[in-house]
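Bumping with the actual sequence this time:
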Amino acid sequence: MSAAHLDRTNAGCLCCGEPALQRETAVISGFLAERAWQGPPTLTQLVTCPRCSFRFFARGLGDDEADNLYHGYRNPDYLSQRQRWEPFYTDRLHQAVLAWSQSSVRIDDLRATLNQAGLPNRWRYALDHGGSGGHLLQAIHAERKVVFDPSGYPTLAGVEVARDATRIPGNCDLLLSCQVLEHISDPFAYLRALADVCSPDAWLYIEVPDETWASHCLPGRLRDRWLGWLVRQRRLLILADFYSTGFRTQRGFVPPYGFVSLREHLNFFSAAALDTLLQRVGLRCVAAGINGAGQRYAIARTANSGTATT
């Protein structure tokens, strides 16, 4: 990736291309800065598109930075490094995150969502792109199951693994990308790459977190001065991060003197943003919504493939 990841706003909205974007100052967490490029916490911008309501951080990750972040993802070293900057990310919370991602409830919900959209019950080749150990493939009946995961996470029995993106077998007829797109610096290029490994009549299931909030932050220059000082005060920054994140995730708004912290999620998708992005890539959304697990999803096909039947 070129230096474009340092400021992802140069071409406007990453989903619809809108050039007139709304901006507010945000913080790159100490955890991300230390793990991805061995730097201190610093400032970036959180950008909102007035047309499609897509939110994204101006700063992305270069290829080497992404490798640093996701190699050994969620292993003990990852947890220790994260807790140095986020003591509120406890062992218990960490285990709950892992358990949810692999839970039977989540697997059953995926199966139900695909069935309700009228997708086939059996597949020739199903690919889970970025699927850790391939646990979600348990929801799928397929002759061949492959997971692409560069983190080194152990893979379930019966699931092939590709650690290198250049070695992913092509021509899949079902592709899953769950909880991945929010981490990607170039969502358009990522989805184009997914389409390239699909058969001409493939189905794609794309899932992202449903993250929305209101902002009651300090205005403009006052906010910039406050956050510029805060990022140099480690203990206060950690406390302010806890305060800000708690209000945003539990109350649905960022409070005064608060901020949105860039940890791992670079992008926050609305329904309109996700649909627009799929169209720009040449994919046609045939079903979308919030699934039983509270996550935003879209089911898409190539532009010239058939429609879903329910």
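The tokens above came from a reply further down the thread. DSSP finds nine helices and 14 strands in the chain.
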